[in-house]
Amino acid sequence: MNEWLERAQEKDREDKLAKYKKEFYLGEAIHYMDGNSLGLMSRPAERSLLDVMEDWKQHGIDGWTRGNRPWFYMSERLGEMMADLVGADAHEVLATNSTTMNIHQTVRTLYQPTDDRYRILVDDLNFPSDIYAVQSILDDYGHSDGMVKIPSDDGHTLSTEAIIDRMDESVALVLLPSVLYRSGQVLEMKKLTEKAHEKGILIGFDLCHSIGSVPHELKKWGVDFAMWCTYKHLNGGPGSVGGLYVHERHHNLAVSLKGWFGNNKETQFDMAHTFDQARDISQYQVGTPHIFSMAPLLGSLKMFQEAGMMNIRRKSLELTSFMMDMIEAVLEGHEVEIVTPRAHAHRGGHILIGHPKAAGINAALKSKGVIPDFRAPNYVRIAPVALYNSFEDVHHTVMILKEIMDDRLYEQFDNKRGVIA
């Protein structure tokens, strides 16, 4: 087993991103492997939140327009900071609302059904909130039967060709995840976008499990819209404000959910009862922005700008490859199944392992200082994050998992999930 530790330590010595680990709050003897659910707090994020609180203390209501971080423009400023992460222009990206609210806002705005073309194409493996939102929209338009789900042949991954084959003339819009939240499969966004547009279909992606771990070129690919959360790989904190991209070709449409922060900023405080829609992505805002839920991102996103997404992606792939190789080598015979695709082009920033006693294994890992998460019915997700996990962290995680399997320690725990998995 020393061979694996030596390899991990050698990789850590060569790691150009290793310096960022000290910027995060890591518990004693904790191997945090749940950054795909909630990223850790960083010192830059903490400082930026405290700085914004200081602005409130010093400026009161004038904090909306004074200081180094005027609140009135913070959504747009953060959008500019996220633009490179999604491969878009600054005027197309915004920090606002939550992921589910942004699905409602974008789909309700872009979806223009006809009697013959009204279906929305989704997938059978998507996160439930996305499905709830789409069904709600279809219900409101009187097209309750309009949802079309692409099935999975293996229960874990989706076929690009199967998705394309279902893009017929009855489909008005497609909403898919960029990375499947269970298996970690990365979809072929560029190809799917090209094929959708060939058939006159709008297409958007939920980037919640790819933003901050996988590079994107949304503008170059021609993607119509996308939304994402900022509390996973972007480390914005629990409930931090969501992100939104809409291609500039759609900025001439009347937004569905209108509110005063979607108004032209030059006329917003005229307080007229006629909505003067902003000309850029700002139009997708609704109510007053949640300043303290955005403030940590000012610090967190600076690290992404410094580190560079290609460097983050390279290390992320190396971390997950090392973990999968080690699991296969040291856990042979323990019925541990690696579900996540091995090909780099098809793998996001986390891996999914399966076992009949997965809930018990998840609990046992936590008791030993490893923090993963459980996904029903029999899976554990493990996410080594490039900015704060080392290869030695991965080594220790797998060795703890081996101990749990060798000694059947999972039998000491109920094989069922908690209220929050």
Q: Which residues form runs of ≥5 with pLDDT under 50?
A: none
Describe the sheet with the most strands: 7 strands, mixed
Roughly how much helix do the residues carry, as a percent range? 25-40%
The radius of gyration is 22 Å
Mean pLDDT value: 97
Please count the beta strands (DSSP E, at least 2 residues each).
Answer: 13
CATH superfamily heading of the largest domain: Type I PLP-dependent aspartate aminotransferase-like (Major domain)
Q: What is the CATH-assigned architecture of the largest domain?
A: 3-Layer(aba) Sandwich
- The string of secondary-structure elements, in order, is HEHHEHEHEHEHEHEEHHEEHEEEH
Structural class: alpha/beta
- Tell me, what's the shape? globular
Classify the fold: give the CATH topology of the largest domain. Aspartate Aminotransferase, domain 2
CATH top level of the largest domain is: Alpha Beta
> How many structural domains?
2
* Separation, N- and C-terminal Cα atoms: 31 Å
Task: Report the total helices.
Answer: 12
Family: Belongs to the kynureninase family.
Binding site for pyridoxal 5'-phosphate: 99-100, 127-130, 206, 209, 231, 260, 288
EC number: 3.7.1.3
Keywords: Hydrolase, Pyridine nucleotide biosynthesis, Pyridoxal phosphate
